[in-house]
Amino acid sequence: MTKPFIGVILLLHAMVCCYAKTISLTTPTTVGKVYITNPDVYNYTPGDTFFIGHSISGLNLYNVKGSPDKYVVVTAAEGVTINGGVVIASAKFVKFQNLNINAGRLTMGFKAQYCSDITLDNIQVTDATIGISIKNDPKDNDPSTYYPVTINNLVINNCSVKNCNNEGFYLGHTFSAPLYNQIPSPIMGLTVSNVSVENTGWDGLQITNAQNCKVNGVTTVNTGTANQTGQKSCVALQDAVTGSFENINCKDATGGLTILGKGEFVIKNVTLDHVATSAGACAFFVDNRSDRGLNLPPRKLMAENISILNGNKSARLPVYVLNSSGFGALAQQGIVKNLKYNAEEWAAPGKVVDYVPNVYITDTTKQVEQAPPVDSSSSTLQPSPVSPVDSVIAQAPPEPLPPVDSTSSTVSVLPTAPIGSASPGQSSNPTLPTEPVLTLNPSKPLEPTKPVSTSPGTSVPAAKKDTGFIKLYSNPNNGRFRVAFTLPQKSKIKMLIVSMSGNVVYQNQWNKIDYLDQMISLPSTGMYILKVMSDSGFEDMKKVIVVK
Q: Rounded to two decimals, what is the model's pTM?
């Protein structure tokens, strides 16, 4: 055998070894779900394709690993349907392409857990509880499910979700308080383009705990049909979210567009058509929320070309921008350019209320005419005259006082904010209470209160070490509010809430925690004293005002 001939044989062998191969996950005899925990039995390598040749009743695929330059591809033949959903876990560098999923209304359409570097391209999901869910749910004693471990480079292109009981897209862990006292893994680098959502009971597109997002091209139709409090947004961009969001078109939603993000938050070319159809909702709602301990910068809203069409007289406001201090630094002043809506289509006052306040600029580069600020002594927001310009902007005064020293009798009063559950799988709550909102006059401090008696012969003393670490969101409130704090060390914590008549209305305790984010409900109007005590000597006390 000549040397040239041997060289040709070796070259052909090298070429064959370098080419990716296609591996069939199904055969004509496959029945039911394909469940693979050890894909190594297929002798796959990075760059190979897993192929689904005919319809199956579900796909569970674990431990698939590609490489940064050679993703493992999972795809199906044309006309194939996966009935029952797709689950991928503990995977990396995997691309799902051209899948048609009909999950059934009791099953998630596509679910990825403990994965990184995942791409979804041309995935269609119909009839599911949640259409597409990608996140990590922290597990006790498993460091791989916590920060600083991250979900890197998540890409979703040309995907659609239709007919879901709950959310359409559920991207990023949403539970407000860290589980097991740890920070859930954030998404670092999320790219979403050309996605659509139709007919969801809860939020259409929900993104939480995701940084460096690039979202371009989102369409939602008929979302929030269950009218569930805190789950009505057509698009919800929530805690610890940063990035740019462009070309968003939403039509028919019981809620609106919700923004709770951080940093320089860029949002452009948004059309909200017939959204916020439920009582008390807002078409465009912005507020501060937790950065989840990731030390993200305060939000700076940079919005451009926001069009709100076909308002609803039963809704609250077309635009409501809060600047609550319950979760850290206040937002920086940003710019809202070319905001358009018809004030006559909304209930009085039919205007924008902005507590940052941001700068509003019309398409003629002139400052938008501003309506008088909200009368803080009134129990309702006052109606404003119809402005000749497209938008009527109420630049509300800055939130009046810094965080309150708990030894003082003066209470810093914020506008009533959205209240709701923060349980797993639920988003933050942009919907305002339907009752009239009472805003107290911050220039008129409350009368000093006497020590509160908890039982005959006892009282709640002033805090020994008042560090001012308790944050309330919001205060005053309608009976539901959030208590959050962070301590420098893990401690045993006791929380007590006492009415002015001396009755203990709430008490709870936690062992060895240094962070808490707790939703509390109080049944009656009035003033209460909330006190937190730790076995490490940290104590704080706040007044809580409930207005129903």
A: 0.69
- Count helices and strands in the chain by DSSP H and E runs: 1, 34
504-521 and 480-499 strand pairing:
antiparallel
| Residue of 359, 334, 323 lying closest to 263 (CA atoms) | 334
- Take residue 533 and report the two structure tokens written for it: 């005590």
Question: What is the DSSP-derived secondary structure letter of residue 203?
Answer: -
Within 54-108, residue ranges assigned H as helices are: none
How far is 180 from 137, CA to CA, in rounded Å?
11
- Which residues, 6 or more positions from 48, have their beta carbon under 8 angstroms from its beta carbon? 20, 21, 22, 23, 72, 73
Greatest C-alpha distance within the chain: 107
Quick check: 482 and 260 in contact, CB under 8 A?
A: no
Residue found under tokens 């309702």: 380
Which amino acid appears at position 16 of this protein? V
What is d(CA 113, CA 99) in angstroms, rounded to the nearest whole number? 19
CA dist., res. 135 & res. 128, Å (int): 17
Contacts of 374-379 with C-beta under 8 Å, sequence gap 24+, read 374/415, 374/439, 376/400, 376/413, 376/439, 376/440, 376/441, 376/442, 377/439, 377/441, 378/439, 379/436, 379/437, 379/438, 379/439
Around 356, how many Cα atoms within 13 Å sit in the side-chain half-sphere?
24
H/E stretch holding 182: none
The token pair at 164 is 């879901």
> If we measure between CA atoms, which residue out of 280, 287, 204 comes closest to residue 241?
287
| Integer Cα distance of 118 and 192 in angstroms | 12
To which residue do tokens 């501060």 refer? 288
CA–CA separation, 183 and 178 (whole Å): 5
Write down the pLDDT at residue 487: 77
Contacts of 73 (CB under 8 A, 6+ apart): 48, 49, 50, 94, 95, 96, 97
* Each residue's pLDDT tens digit, 261-282: 999 999 999 999 999 999 889 9
pLDDT value of residue 372: 34
**pLDDT tens digits along 166-207:** 999 999 998 766 667 778 899 999 999 999 999 999 999 999
For residue 139, what are the CA distances in angstroms to 64, 424, 431?
A: 20, 14, 31
Q: Looking at the DSSP assignment, which residues form a beta bridge with residue 221? A: 198, 251
CA angle 401, 402, 406 (to 5 degrees): 100
Residue 459 pLDDT > 70: no
Q: How far apart (Å, rounded) are the C-alpha atoms in residues 58 and 293? A: 37
